[in-house]
Amino acid sequence: MNIRFDGKRALVTGAGRGIGRGIIKKLAECGAECVAMSKTQENLDSLKNEVPGIRTVMVDLADWTATRHALEKIGKIDLLVNNAAIVIMSPFLETTKEDLDKVFDVNFKAVFNVSQVTVLLPLSYLIHNCLNRHCIFYKVFTTYYINSTQENS
């Protein structure tokens, strides 16, 4: 199967390593203009060495305002992959509110923030495709969508 994204700009969060890094490589291979977003400059630098021509943006997605400012500078996005996520591995009885806040800030709030800003970019920049890799966001959105659809029928 030959999938092409020529002329399309793709934004991938959590692109510094792991699945996000692989997604950026594949999208670039398929012709997309790629924007890699990560909170670690070192990871972005090594990715840019592997995939010249990509644009990199360093931002901590847990920082709501900094994320919004970074996204506004990017411009039109045709394909959004909300991939960034964190896991705090601590025993249940030792997990703190701060731990949960960090996880919620990146794994849920950032998905909402990035998606909202991308959709609201000026000049009717619309997202053609959006992939949210986080099942919690998908389930919440799907549940809301299904419930609101049933109420309107």
UniProtKB/TrEMBL annotation:
Q: What is the name of the protein in this document?
A: L-xylulose reductase
Question: Gene3D superfamilies attached here?
Answer: NAD(P)-binding Rossmann-like Domain
Question: Which family, according to the similarity comment?
Answer: Belongs to the short-chain dehydrogenases/reductases (SDR) family.
- PANTHER family per record: D-ERYTHRULOSE REDUCTASE, D-ERYTHRULOSE REDUCTASE-RELATED
In terms of superkingdom, the source organism counts as Eukaryota
Q: Tell me yes or no: is NADP among this UniProt entry's keywords.
A: yes
Q: Source organism lineage?
A: Eukaryota, Metazoa, Spiralia, Lophotrochozoa, Mollusca
For this protein, the record's Pfam families field holds: adh_short
Report keywords, A-Z: NADP
The UniProt entry, under InterPro entries, shows:
DHB_DH, L-xylulose/Carbonyl_redctase, NAD(P)-bd_dom_sf, SDR_fam
